[in-house]
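Take a look at this chain, tokens included, and explain the fold to me:
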Amino acid sequence: MNHSQYLSFVFFFLTAATRLVSVDCIRAAEQPNILFIAVDDLRPELGCYGSPIAQTPHLNELADRGLLFNRAYCQQAICRPSRASLMTGVRPETTGLFHNHVALRELQPDILTLPEHLIANGYDAAYVGKIFHNGDTDDGRSWSRDAAKQLGPNIKKPNGPYRLPENIQLRKKNFEQMFARYGDAARRGLASGPAFEKADVPDHAYIDGYNTLLAIKTMREMAENNKPFFLAMGYVLPHLNWCAPVKYWDLYDPSKIPILADATPPTHGAAMGLHASFELRTRSNIPKYGPLDQQLARTLKHAYLASTSYVDAQIGLLLEALDNSGLRNNTIIVVWGDHGWHLGDMGVWGKATNYEIATRVPLILSTPDMKIRGKKSNALVELVDLFPTLCDLANVSKPKHLEGQSFLPLLNDPNKQWKKAAFSQYPNPALREWAANPLSHGMRETWFGPLIKEVEQRIINQQGARWERELFEEHLMGYSMRTDHYRLVVWQDRRHPDDLPVFIELFDHQTDPYEKHNIAYQHPALVQQLTRQLRAGWKKAMAPAEG
């Protein structure tokens, strides 16, 4: 299919949606549809969040028609735990999920999910792409129907992340070499291709473009049903690998992409608070040791921006189909990222920390009857709050197990006094794999070995007599609390929550928004006060109930 044929195909999908309007589609306001858009590894690097360079016109427009939450936070900066918290409305300490290598239903066989609850209240629910973590789809419980399966004989589902033959071959060769050298240890994510690709191909040649067309087709099918729908569309990009059509790369002049002047860890920060960019270093064109040079750093940021713009364009197609169908007048739209991403910030490439750059996420909400549009709220909100908020907006009851708080009042008063704090956590990033599971023996045998030894020695040098391998590899948790003014990170042995912390970090966001200086040991009284607040927990941080 050539480019003009593809455009004609997309036009067919968009215009076909205009025929969806029927008496069943224009429902009463108490039965709104919900378009639920997840974007993997998306930090707030968007025009609507103040990025001077990101080309994201469709998300900018959505923010203009809705409410943008400037201080929204995930509960853990890794995919499965974050998504599990959002989809169940409970925190990682309740789900028991702290890494990507155990399924939600293995630990919580009976917990109620957001779409499962909506189905019980009359909704038709389907998903396309990544909503739960890969392999954790919850089919048959959280979804009442399958999404559309195919687009027709002329558009094939993309196979793998790469389109360029040389990158497909490079990935295959790398797999063969890694397994020949390391055996089963290569299964720990070591065998990968390049970190990025730009190819002169149509949008649907990559999986996010293909899935967008599937989502549009699914929306058309769901609109024909006599039920409100919950349609979840999960984008993979800008998760690695950053592979996007060349036209999105061409939106940016590489020479104008800024590179961080200071990419160093926080002074007096926790040695265990940062990792060695393991996830990125598995890629075949990335150095396995040492810092990245400026040219490569700029290319990687370019790749991330191009991937973000590509996803923005797909969201634009999805919203255009919604507009053309006449369904937007009765549809709630929410866009969220599951966690942030370090683009060299603090010397790190990846997610998986307890700091602002990894825990702060984009969150945009638009409802048909919003009285206030195009505003930003600086209220502290959490992804765990989305479940109760959507219940309120859909006029369904809130299950009793929820640990978040509906932020519905903020839609009418974005500046309203709200939560006292937002809470995140992450187990020792320095001695965990990028999926947050403890370091395997296999990883130590690979070329990650020298990196691991270097990181480990840095922790030993800082901790001295407090160093104990089992504690630091298996049981050390960083508990993070973000208040209006501060970020506190308490590094604690999970087995002994009442013991003294192993280490404490404190950052003053009024004077140090990039968290460059740990001031904990300069302010013992303040640390004591904030630690008490952290240990009082999320229940004590809730906003006052509406009277």
Observations:
- Residues 3-412+427-541 form a domain with the Alkaline Phosphatase, subunit A fold (CATH 3.40.720.10).
